[in-house]
Design a protein that fits this description.
Layout: H1 7-15, H2 18-54, H3 62-81, H4 88-99
């Protein structure tokens, strides 16, 4: 539970608008989720490799799971670290370019 005068309040007031605060909070939440997803990827795929080894080292079927899930994980990483939300400045630039 957050206290009414917790340090977060002073950070929020010194960093800008509520919109900026919410964007930053959303980015932090996405990063936390990504860390959990990476952890789950490693643990579950390790368990699949152990199951594959325990059943006789046949065709490496865990590779399918690793590859497909890994592709989605890379797409999530791109979204978290490189994709940014549309800003008011982006919209202004677009409107200005249409007027020229």
């Amino acid at each position: 539970m957050v206290e009414p005068h917790a340090p977060q309040d002073s950070v929020k007031s010194s960093t800008g608008t509520d919109r900026e605060w919410e964007r930053a909070r959303s980015a932090v939440e996405r990063k936390h989720k990504l860390r959990g997803d990476i952890f789950a990827y490693v643990v579950i795929n390790l368990a699949l490799v152990v199951a594959w080894a325990a059943t006789g080292f046949g065709s490496f079927w865990p590779g399918w799971v690793m590859g497909i899930w890994g592709t989605f994980l890379v797409l999530d990483m791109w979204t978290v670290f490189y994709r940014r939300p549309v800003t008011d400045d982006d919209i202004r630039r677009e409107l200005h370019s249409r007027q020229s």
